Automatic annotation (TrEMBL):
GO molecular function: structural constituent of ribosome
A cellular-component GO term for this protein: mitochondrial large ribosomal subunit
Protein name as catalogued: Uncharacterized protein
Location of the protein in the cell: Mitochondrion
Length: 373
């Protein structure tokens, strides 16, 4: 018997309204707010870091060695991370033991229950919806027994990943109320507004072998097994938005929603694979949380996120089995690194007007991600 196929999440969303769907299939609660409280007390100087970043940016932006814009953005993210490490490593000894990887393979697969509705049908002229398990064929990705448990896979690519021997401190414990808050608010009609066939979200079946790869091969006996910070290029999302050709007044919101969806997908992929490499499965669930940080960017706009995996037992929904735990992803609004680049100089907009240099808020956040313990 051949194994079931999994529905593949693309490198960036291929549908313009997929945020809630991504939340559902990963059972992830989204918190949209500033991360200032998460990084409170971490206020490193940014002057020397900004100077180094500007020099790297000028070189990358003027170079013709990149085969695509995605490669250029990935190089920018790698430079930001490298210069950040060089900037603070002399004062933070533990950074010397961290491991940096570039062009990282980040893959995971999982089963998500709750898709029995795919076997419902409503005859023409009838108001009755019937579940027809006998006549309808098994839906792609489901168990042979037609349990409504679909397989999903995300074969993500990260521009850079920083790993350590020890895990990042959790946002909260598994026993706290925070770990059991619902994914959606009460005003969200999950059955009618969230649950659809994966085809509606422009997902396609993946026929390649499924495995767990949180940035490293499990068989490699990797000693630095915890992802602390990762960065991913969103240049492909810019191309998607151009294809969708949304009205100008909606384009920014469209990009932001897709960036949030990608933050949910990328963080869950990393942490789910990481949990599996540490011996946990969807049938045993995790007994401790896994936390990681993520930076998403198209080279100019930056989205910062922090995610925590509280459960992977999302593959079963039946009487007698209750799992109130949910995962969480904190995402803050996009920040622009710069607004204009002319004659070799960078400029960004402030409340007081245009100012030469890079946005210190972005630079500070990158440094804070490194320093967070």
């Amino acid at each position: 018997m051949s194994p079931r196929k999994a529905w593949a999440l693309p490198l960036v969303p291929a549908y313009f309204d997929c945020l809630k769907y991504y939340q559902y299939i990963t059972k992830t609660r989204l918190v949209e707010s500033s991360l200032d409280n998460y990084y409170v007390g971490l206020v490193p100087p940014t002057a020397s870091y900004e100077k180094a970043v500007q020099e790297s940016l000028r070189t990358i932006l003027s170079s013709d060695r990149f085969g695509s814009e995605d490669e250029r953005v990935s190089a920018i993210l790698a430079a930001l991370m490298d210069e950040a490490i060089f900037s603070v490593a002399h004062n933070v000894p533990r950074l010397g033991d961290y491991r940096v990887a570039y062009d990282v393979q980040n893959e995971s697969f999982w089963i998500r229950a709750g898709f029995m509705f795919l076997y419902d049908r409503q005859l023409i002229g009838s108001d009755t919806v019937e579940r027809d398990l006998k006549r309808l064929s098994k839906f792609t990705g489901d168990d042979r027994r037609k349990l409504g448990e679909l397989a999903f896979v995300c074969r993500d690519r990260l521009a850079v990943q920083l790993r350590s021997r020890d895990p990042l401190a959790p946002l909260h414990s598994l026993e706290s109320d925070e770990a059991c808050k619902p994914v959606f608010s009460e005003d969200v009609d999950v059955a009618n507004d969230v649950l659809f066939s994966p085809k509606v979200i422009n997902l396609w079946p993946d026929e390649d072998p499924l495995w767990q790869c949180p940035g490293y091969f499990v068989e490699s006996e990797e000693t630095h097994a915890y992802s602390r910070v990762a960065a991913k290029s969103l240049s492909l999302l810019d191309e998607r938005c151009k294809e969708w050709d949304a009205p100008p007044e909606e384009n920014a919101e469209l990009w932001q929603d897709c960036a949030k969806a990608q933050a949910v997908a990328s963080l869950f992929t990393t942490l789910c694979a990481q949990a599996h490499t540490h011996g946990f499965t969807q049938y045993t669930d995790v007994t401790r949380p896994f936390t990681s940080q993520l930076m998403l960017s198209n080279g100019v706009d930056f989205v910062f996120a922090v995610g925590q995996l509280n459960t992977i037992a999302i593959n079963i929904e039946c009487d007698g089995f209750e799992n109130p735990k949910t995962n969480v992803c904190h995402v803050e609004s996009p920040l622009r690194l710069y607004d204009d680049y002319r004659e070799g100089r960078f400029y960004h907009i402030t409340p007081e007007g245009e100012k030469e240099g890079l946005n210190s808020k972005v630079l500070l956040r990158v440094l804070q991600m490194l320093l967070r313990d």
